[in-house]
Specification:
The chain has a single domain, classed as Aldolase class I (TIM Barrel). The chain is α/β, with parallel strands linked by helices. 34% of the residues lie in helices and 11% in strands. The chain has helices at residues 3-9, 52-64, 83-92, 114-121, 134-141, 145-158, 185-200, 216-224, 228-237, 265-270, 287-291, and strands at residues 22-26, 69-73, 96-101, 124-128, 170-174, 207-209, 252-255, 261-262. It contains 11 helices and 8 strands.
Length: 311
């Protein structure tokens, strides 16, 4: 049974946006890492990057709309040459800015002042750490990635991120290291906090759990290991209709590196833009039209609705 039929059975059609709280912007697919589970298939050789012109169009939308949250992602969003300009401008407009960081970017040459920039601008950091064990991280993200991530987290803690300051939030993201569903978010958050504090003296605010999506490199891994159908069966069997109210596509709009509009980052990677009866590019954004738009979806959406869901 496909995602459309499942929503139909639960009387959840049409699937519509409820509001736009967040403008999620992919600044490009270039990254300093090549993670095995990356749904973007990002890496050092990727050349796609958002231009200054498109960034100005995004700023214009922030000025003219009621959107107050900017979510910056990539690749490594920090590698876009206009990243800091966008962050400073959005913060000056009163926007809350979230940056999805791989942590190791803080240790790259030329990025020595990045943590200080984060603190100066007061961004919220959402950092990927798929395990609190070294072997689990290095197996999917590369040798020495865990130790680099620990160094970056300690540097952020020293600046006040993830400690007692309400203004400097540091959240972590957990992804399963294989073809299985994540455990309950509250339980694994307790484990992360206990292990990271006890072994490394590291603190953070929240842990978010995300199901590995059947997109990008993880999809290739599933197909290569003949596990795709079995994993899809797990996702379908774990469908939870209660997740529908909170899934990300219902309260955000995603902007691709080239200015095209999508209902979420996963749809962007699948090449599924917003429906044709809505504006297709950020320069044509219309707040009223998009606020209650009908959402484009596919069978990959089972990943966001399995178990507790990915919000």
């Amino acid at each position: 049974m496909g995602f459309h039929e499942t929503l139909q059975d639960f009387c959840l059609l049409p699937l519509k946006s409820t509001r736009i709280e967040i403008l999620q912007v992919n600044l490009g697919y270039r990254c300093n890492m090549t993670c095995k589970h990356c749904h973007v298939q990002a890496g050092p050789a990727r050349e796609e990057t958002m231009t200054a012109e498109t960034i100005e169009q995004i700023i214009a939308v922030l000025k003219e709309s009621r959107i107050t949250n900017l979510d910056l992602t990539g690749g490594a969003p920090e590698l876009n040459p206009h990243f800091r300009y966008l962050v400073r401008t959005a913060r000056a407009l009163g926007c809350h800015v979230m940056v999805r960081s791989n942590l190791t970017i803080l240790l790259e040459k030329g990025m020595e002042d990045l943590a200080g920039f984060y603190r100066q601008t007061g961004v919220e950091i959402i950092a990927s750490l798929p395990s609190y064990r070294e072997d689990g991280v290095d197996r999917i993200r590369g040798t020495e990635t865990f130790q680099k991530s620990i160094r970056a987290l300690r540097a952020l803690n020293r600046l006040g991120f993830g400690t007692k300051s309400d203004d400097l939030k540091l959240n972590l993201v957990y992804n399963p290291t294989g073809a299985f569903l994540p455990p309950a978010q509250s339980a694994i958050e307790e484990e992360y906090k206990r292990e990271l504090a006890g072994r490394f003296g590291i603190t953070f605010n929240r842990l978010y759990t995300f199901t590995n999506m059947t997109i990008g490199r993880f999809r290739e891994f599933l197909i290569r290991t003949n596990a795709f159908e079995r994993y899809m069966e797990k996702l379908i069997a774990a469908f939870n209709p209660e997740t529908i109210n909170g899934i990300m596509c219902r309260h955000l709009l995603n902007v691709g590196w080239d200015g095209r509009l999508y209902d979420c980052d996963f749809n962007q990677m699948m090449g599924l833009p917003v429906r044709k009866d809505y504006p297709q590019r950020i320069q044509d954004f219309d707040d009223v039209l998009f606020r209650e738009r009908e959402i484009t979806f596919g069978d990959h959406c089972f990943g966001c609705t399995a178990g507790q869901g990915s919000t």
